[in-house]
Specification:
By secondary structure, this protein is α/β, with parallel strands linked by helices. It contains 6 helices and 10 strands. The protein has an 8-stranded mixed beta sheet, with helices on both faces. Strands 2-3 form a two-stranded antiparallel ribbon.
Amino acid sequence: MRTIILYVKSLDHLIEYRPLFLRSVVYAILISHGVREYCRMVSFIAEKKSSIVVLGSRVKRVYPDEQSLQGIFNKIVKHLRITPPKGRKVHPGIFIRKGDFKTLLKECKSSVNTYIEEGSMSTIPKLGRSFTAVIPFIYSFTSSEKNMLRRYGYKPLKINLNRFYPDQIVVILNFIGDITW
């Protein structure tokens, strides 16, 4: 299974950059006029210790425009503001889960595990159909976050974070995964 993990620092950060988040969801699970059933996107909200899970194999009524996701996004925010957030189904194929980042990294491991780091890509990596990629949402990982990712077997993939937004990185990763499949 192809897994894209967005690491978001806080719920306020997610709300502030809502269009980027919505485009990331669309680009992660939709292709042309269909759904990438072999993909899932997980957005980990560090402040809430919760994840938003979007399963391509189960999602329904999601269209390539961000406006169709706006109502779903509002439901997600409402459920995440509940203290403490409870794990629940928000929409067909979209769930909120409790849990820390370490557990998420262990559960989402696949044959190729990578995280996005600041730098320039020298060669195109072979990702294939099944990979897990962790993307920082509008910032670079701290050294302690990088150390944790390395400890769990994730290797750095250097992409210039100043030039690309998270939704564009999702497109790049899906493209690389598709051509090396």
